[in-house]
TrEMBL record:
This is C-type cytochrome. The keyword Phosphoprotein does not apply. Residues 100-178, 192-274 form the Cytochrome c domain. GO terms for molecular function: electron transfer activity; heme binding; metal ion binding. The keyword Kinase does not apply.
Amino acid sequence: MATEPLDLTPEQRAAEDRTFRRGAALAVGVVLVAGIVLGFVVLPVVQGASVGLDAWSAICRAIGVQPGTPIARQPSSEAAATPVSQVSWGPATLGALRNGNVARGAQLSRVCDACHGAQGLSSDPQFPNMSGQTAYAIYKQLHDFRSGARKNYLMSIVATYRSDQSIADLAVYYASRQALQHGSIEDPVAANLAVRGDPARSIAACNACHLGNPGAPVETPNLIGQHKEYLLNQLQAFAHDTRHNDVYARMRTISTALTSDEMERLAAYYAATPRP
């Protein structure tokens, strides 16, 4: 018959406790060392070898004494920051347009007549017609020329010396003028892109934004009656990323998906479309 073990003396219990603590500490130490070796030696060496990084550099990067990571060398970029539109459609901007002075805008427009024509109707197709354009679109483009978000040698100089209110006055003046009317043309390809777009190529219907429909981005210009040459030049500028003041890169995305023939057709279609 088995007998019950005798009670341990305090000295025996202390010795047993020390043995347990040493065993637990040893177990923790083994796990810790294994984790360090795995995380700072094994994985960096294996991953670094796949990208041509020597073992010593991989380990140094892993422990933080060299820049980069043990997985791959870090890329560097010399690209300069690209300015974007700084127009915000908040109370200040909307208030400036709401309080725009048409008479003062007419006076300010005299410096614009040489290129954009009297009453904002340009005789040179490389310069856009301004009359009948939305005040929001004119304000944004002039503001972008001033800030550098849009580049043009002449317009950048002219806009540099205009205050926000002067820009608003010009915008409301041209918006109050009568737009040029043309006869329409039949082009099913351009009409389909204008009305339906091409979802398969991420091309939205042009009319969704460019006819001043409710819910459309407020700053998008009305294309109807604009010069064909000017419209084509702007589509090409967006496609080549030489113009990049479109919000969320909408026009750059669409224009890069259009063919050269479609750009030509759309430019001619909108230039010939009469105002509703």
